[in-house]
Design brief:
It is built from four helices and three strands, in the order βαβααβα. The chain has 82 residues and is α/β, with parallel strands linked by helices. The termini are far apart.
Length: 82
């Protein structure tokens, strides 16, 4: 089994799926971090798993500032009203 996982560090489902489609079969699976998970939710994980992909869900919330900023921006686009 290929041990290489590629980070889907994007903020939109379509971009993540395009990247996964391009790399499927070349890598061992995909990492979903807080930015993509916040933007697209659990359905993104389910979709990849249903396609047979290995998924590493990386939701640590104490992370490098750039990653935290991306997750906050994704959450803000949801217009939570707070």
């Amino acid at each position: 089994m290929n041990p290489i996982l590629v980070a889907l560090d994007v903020d939109r489902r379509e971009r993540a799926l395009d990247l996964a489609d391009q790399l499927r079969g070349l890598v061992g699976g995909f990492k979903i971090g807080s930015q993509l998970f916040t933007a697209e939710g659990p359905s993104m994980v389910r979709h990849l798993v249903e396609r047979g992909d290995r998924v590493f869900l990386d939701l640590k919330f104490h992370d490098i500032p750039n990653t935290v900023a991306g997750a906050i921006a994704a959450a803000a686009r949801l217009a939570p009203g707070w």
